[in-house]
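yo, tRNA uridine(34) hydroxylase is done. seq:
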Amino acid sequence: MKSENTQIVATLYKFVSLPDFAEKRDRLLSYCIDQGARGTILLAPEGINGTIAGSRRAVEAVLSFLRADPRLADIEAKESVAETPPFERMKVRLKSEIVTLGLPEVDPNQQVGTYVNPQEWNDLIADPEVTVIDTRNDYEVNIGTFQKAQNPQTASFREFPEYVRQELDPTKNKKVALFCTGGIRCEKASSFMLSQGFTEVYHLKGGILKYLEEVPPEESLWEGECFVFDERVAVRHGLEAGNYDLCLSCGRPISEDDKTLPQYEEGISCHYCFDSLTEEKRARQQEKWRQQQLKIQREK
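structure:
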C-alpha cells in the first residue's frame, strides 16, 4: 500500500537544438514550483536533461508543459516510485552541456550512433568483432556490467575522450557497442567517436535500465546490479531494488561487505572517501549526520 508521501520520479532527456534555452528557465522553474514538483532540470543549447518528483498530477502537468514546445513534443520520461520525497526543492539550471563531456562542439543533434533495442543487444555484443564499452564511471561499473564489456576506468565522463584516443583505434576497433544507465551518455559518446573516425558505432536504446526492464533474467548477459541516481541506489532485473546503500559523504554505492571495512562510519565515510576526508570535512559531515538523526527523531 502506497503512503501519502509516495512520489512519482520521472527522468527525462532529449538532445535537440535549443538556442533560446536561457529564456526558458524562469517560466519553467515557476511552473514546476506552482505544480509542486521538485528536482533538477538542466537546459543547454544542445537540449534538456533532468529528474523531477511529485504527485502523479504534478509530474504529468510538467511533462505536458514541456511537450507544448514542438521541439520537445516527443520527449519521453522513465518513471519510478519513491516512498518519500527524494528532492528538497526545484532547480532549473543553465549549462553548456546537458551531460558534461567537456566538448560542447560534440553534438548528437548532428550525428549519433545506431540505436539497438534491448531485444537485439545480446546478438550484437556476442559478436567477437564487436568492442563492447561501458561508458559509465568506474564506481558504477564495479557493481555491475555486461559480459565482455571494457571498463574505461574513468572517474568522470570528461575522461572518456582521452580513453578513446589512448586505447581505441578506428582501424582496429571497427565495430563498437556502447551502453550506459539510461542512454544519454551513449548518445554523446557515440557522437564523439564518429567524429574521431569510428564508422560503426552502436548504442543500447534506453540504456541498461530498459534492458533490465525488458530482457528476462534467463536470457540476460548482464552481471551484477545497476547503479541509479535515486533512493533505490541500485536495481536488478525487473528494476527491483538492489542490495546497495549510498555513502552519505561521497555518494558512492556501498555493499554490506563494504560496511564491515574499518574505513566505514555510518553517515561519515566509506573506503572510497576515507583517505580524502579532511578533519574539517569530517566535522561538517558529523554535524550534518547529527542533524539528520535529530530530524528523524522529531518526526517519529
